[in-house]
Automatic annotation (TrEMBL):
Signal sequence range: none
Cofactor(s) required, per the database record: [4Fe-4S] cluster
Organism (species): Candidatus Beckwithbacteria bacterium CG2_30_44_31
InterPro entries named among the record's database cross-references: Elp3/MiaA/NifB-like_rSAM (IPR006638), Methylthiotransferase (IPR005839), Methylthiotransferase_CS (IPR020612), Methylthiotransferase_N (IPR013848), Methylthiotransferase_N_sf (IPR038135), rSAM (IPR007197), rSAM_horseshoe (IPR023404), rSAM_sf (IPR058240)
Name of the protein in its database record: tRNA-2-methylthio-N(6)-dimethylallyladenosine synthase
PROSITE patterns documented for this protein: MTTASE_N (PS51449), MTTASE_RADICAL (PS01278), RADICAL_SAM (PS51918)
Protein keywords: 4Fe-4S, Iron, Iron-sulfur, Metal-binding, S-adenosyl-L-methionine, Transferase
Length: 362
């Protein structure tokens, strides 16, 4: 009997990448492959990459250099967000790689292979139309595409049948589910009336009584609707942790980032949430050292942090991403200053909650 070929997957980055790797594993096993116990035993090695910051790409490059030392006949396949460089350039940059796999070519035809038997990632959309000036996602994952609602609900039903009691709905911006055909400029200028498609989906997911916990991430503040707030307040199945990236507390920087809201808008949203949702825990993302960020700009972020009382913050030091609008701006905040600002926010937001840190699915 012929021995089955084996695969091994390295995953860098966010929850969406982890979900993608589960689908990649499912595709391999549908084709008769078996998971290798370790990378040394693998016939094929998949590296699912992250490009949100240069440091993430550097880790991939370091891994490839190590793998090349004992590559032998192993096949190395690169996928994920580094695809934004294009196939030809990637193969020039990374000669250790044998094949490029655009992540959008990995569909939903095969069941995902999940290690977690309680919580399941369920992608509801892919890509992004927002084009924040610093963000590589619209270039690495393409324009936003929503999955059919029926497919999502069918997948959740199957997960429940397998014993899953928690799910996390995933998207680069879950709020915009079902709105990918409407131009982003029109949506920002004239907010949609009525119940947004994401809230309609969330209401249907809440009807699965066997689900004990429903999470979603990530949301953009500018289209976090009143209907969504009401939905969270009404359904106790929905997690009381809300991840709401702010990125900056300076209106000038927010405009340069093309975020579509002011810090006053953000604070107004937070007050609505805290007024309606009991036991709410808020988390956020913040970038320090964005091009042109002055000390007053940074202090505006510090002041907002004191007003909002986030309990967890993923604070990143800005690094230019090729092809983005911000990459054309001067990266004029020194590495030392970025580190200083990072440490201030780390001490202010994260350190006080280290012993009682909110449960954040990572």
């Amino acid at each position: 009997m012929k021995k089955a070929k084996t695969y091994f997957i390295y995953t860098f980055g966010c929850q969406m990448n982890k979900s993608d790797s589960e689908r990649i594993a499912g595709d391999y096993q549908t084709r008769g492959f078996q998971p290798a116990k370790n990378v040394k035993e693998a016939d094929e090695i998949v590296i699912n990459t992250c490009s949100v910051r240069k440091s993430a790409e550097d880790r991939v490059i370091g891994l490839l250099l190590n793998l090349a030392k004992n590559k032998g006949k192993k096949k190395i396949i690169l996928t994920g967000c580094m695809i934004h460089y294009g196939r030809r350039r990637l193969l020039e940059m990374l000669p250790q790689v044998d094949e490029i796999l655009p992540i959008n070519e990995v569909g939903f035809n095969s069941p995902s292979i999940r290690r977690d038997k309680i919580n399941a990632w369920v992608p509801i959309s892919n890509g992004c139309n927002s084009f924040c000036s610093y963000c590589i996602v619209p270039y690495s994952r393409g324009r936003e595409t929503s999955r059919p609602e029926k497919d999502i609900l069918d997948e959740i039903r199957q997960l429940i049948d397998k014993g899953y009691t928690e799910i996390t709905l995933l998207g680069q911006n879950v709020n915009s589910f079902g709105l990918d055909k409407i131009g982003i400029g029109l949506r920002k200028a004239r907010p949609r009336q009525g119940i947004p498609p994401f809230v309609e989906l969330l209401e249907k997911v809440c009807r699965f009584n066997k689900l004990k916990k429903i999470r979603f991430m990530t949301s953009n503040p500018w289209d976090f609707s009143d209907a969504l707030i009401d939905c969270i307040a009404q359904h106790l199945q929905i997690d009381r942790f809300v991840h709401l990236p702010v990125q900056s507390g300076s209106n000038r920087i927010l405009k340069l980032m093309n975020r579509g809201y002011t810090w006053q808008d953000y604070l107004k949203l937070v007050k609505k949430l805290t007024a309606k949702v009991k036991d709410l825990t808020l988390g956020t993302d913040i970038i320090v050292g964005f091009p042109g960020e002055t000390e007053p700009d940074f202090q505006a972020t510090v002041n907002l942090a004191k007003k909002v009382n986030w309990q967890v913050a993923f604070v990143a030091r800005y690094s230019p991403r090729p092809g983005t609008a911000a990459a054309k701006m001067a990266d004029d905040v020194s590495a030392a200053e970025k580190k200083r600002r990072w440490q201030i926010l780390e001490n202010l937001i994260n350190q006080p909650y280290l012993t009682n840190r909110p449960k954040v699915i990572k």
